[in-house]
Every structure is written in structure tokens, then in C-alpha cells.
């Protein structure tokens, strides 16, 4: 039953959206190199911009521990007219995104900072 409901939902979402025309891509480029490095970028007529580049990197102790390290950005205009930009890196430390609109955690309480420093000094951290 759930599969049938999901199928109907997929068909409904794929249906034409009235008189909305597709957004045109006004610039696009991509490059793939023999060493595994790559880059691509595009911009659409609505001001959306996307760019990404990456390369192969040894991410572990063994020569075969190779992974792709990537970085990029994307931006778009929100419904209220504000340009939203996200810069990101994806590497052996995971995915890290930054942007003025993204929430940030509150500062750590001073007693927690002291406790962590004490644990580090004691060799427990």
C-alpha cells in the first residue's frame, strides 16, 4: 500500500507545473582529468550558481586508501530576495558547509572549556 501511495506521489510531483517554463542554463563548463581531478560550474537564468572541484588524495595510511576531496559552492535567491550562498568542503574530515545564513552553536560554557583543558593536560583527551 505504501509503495502504491509513493508511486502516485512521484507521478504527481513529476506532472507539469502549470505554465512554469524550465529554467535555462546560461553558462556551463566541466573538466575531467586523467589523474581523477575534476571541476564543473553552471549558472542558470534565475541567478542560481553552482561550482565544484575535486581531486584524489591519500586519506589513510595505506597507498590504496585513496578518496576524493572536493570543495565547492552554490548560491540562489530566496523567495524574499536574499542571495543565499553556501561554501563547502568534503574531505577525510567529512562534509563541512559554511554560510552566513547557517546557524552556529552557542559558545561553550567556561566550566566546560576548563574541564576539557584539564582532561587534555592530564592526557585523558
N-C termini distance? 51 Å
Kindly name the structural category. alpha+beta
Report strand %: 35-45%
How many extended strands? 6
GO molecular function, one term: structural constituent of chitin-based larval cuticle
Protein name: Endocuticle structural glycoprotein SgAbd-2
Keywords: Cuticle
InterPro entries: Cuticle_Struct_Prot (IPR050468), Insect_cuticle (IPR000618)
Which helices and strands, and how do they pair?
Elements: H1 2-14, E1 25-32, E2 38-44, E3 49-58, E4 66-77, E5 83-91, E6 94-98, H2 110-121
Antiparallel strand pairs: 1-2, 2-3, 3-4, 4-5, 5-6
Notes on the structure:
It contains 2 helices and 6 strands; from the N terminus they run H-E-E-E-E-E-E-H. A hairpin with a 5-residue loop joins strand 1 and strand 2 (38-44). The model has no long low-confidence stretch (mean pLDDT 87). It is of the alpha+beta class. The radius of gyration is 22 Å and the shape is flat. It has a 6-stranded antiparallel β-sheet with strand order 1-2-3-4-5-6, with no helix packed on it. The N and C termini lie far apart (51 Å). 0% of the residues are buried.
Amino acid at each position: 500500500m505504501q509503495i502504491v501511495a509513493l508511486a502516485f506521489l512521484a507521478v504527481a510531483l513529476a506532472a507539469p507545473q502549470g505554465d512554469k517554463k524550465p529554467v535555462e542554463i546560461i553558462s556551463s563548463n566541466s573538466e575531467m582529468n586523467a589523474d581523477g581531478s575534476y571541476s564543473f560550474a553552471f549558472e542558470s537564468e534565475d541567478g542560481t550558481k553552482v561550482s565544484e572541484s575535486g581531486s584524489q588524495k591519500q586519506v589513510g595510511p595505506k597507498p590504496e586508501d585513496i578518496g576524493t576531496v572536493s570543495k565547492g559552492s552554490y548560491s540562489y535567491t530566496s523567495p524574499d530576495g536574499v542571495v543565499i550562498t553556501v561554501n563547502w568542503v568534503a574531505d577525510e574530515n567529512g562534509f563541512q558547509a559554511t554560510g552566513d545564513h547557517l546557524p552556529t552553536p552557542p559558545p561553550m560554557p567556561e566550566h566546560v572549556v576548563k574541564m576539557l583543558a584539564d582532561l587534555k593536560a592530564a592526557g585523558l583527551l
